[in-house]
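Lab notebook: predicted structure, single chain.

Context: the supervisor wants predicted structures on file for every construct in the current expression panel, including those that have not yet been purified. This is the next one on the list. No modifications to the sequence; it matches the entry in the shared construct table.
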Amino acid sequence: MAAIGLKMVYVGIKDDNGNVVAGDAGLSDTGIFEIDTNKANRNLGTKTANISNLAGNVTKISGNNQVVDVSAQDGAPTVAIDSNFINPEKKEKMLGHVQLEDGGWVDGDKPVETGLIIESQSPITLTSAFFCFGRGIMTQTAQNVQTNTNTAETREDDNLTYTAIAYDKFNNKCAAYYDAADKNFDKQKMFDRVFPGNQYDATNGGKKK
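Prediction complete. Output recorded below exactly as produced.
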């Protein structure tokens, strides 16, 4: 799906039943966390969300000295997220880390599943376009801390990798795509599908229902 820019990234932690977790145990009162550009929320937005492996391998089937069919595997999408800064507490929860009594964070005993929506924009209608993933895990594999110099400040972004998993509400596929210009599009239903049990009012600026 062709798109212009990156408007927003939405994340929500899932419980063992697949419902989004709200409140203190989750990422927000609504269950859905926006990686916005509001410094009061301790966020600085996202530069890129690079989606790969949307399609699986295609194998040609030969017979009688010609290609007679093809076998296509399902995709196994991953998303490389490069954010300028994500609220540290929210990021640790996305990664499935648990907090120690003195404020530190350590790996949890098992991965935490999250839902993910990436919002972009259509090149022609300029309406929103959404790349949605109902199940997956976030990981952070590296941290490259570098010195400042006398002439430059050295920043490192929050780089996360999202690995998608088959999702029953996407017909057991990993991803779904929505165009806000489609006659059947319903933003609230989309959010409810990706983040079941949320309290996010998608038609009212994300306020709590």
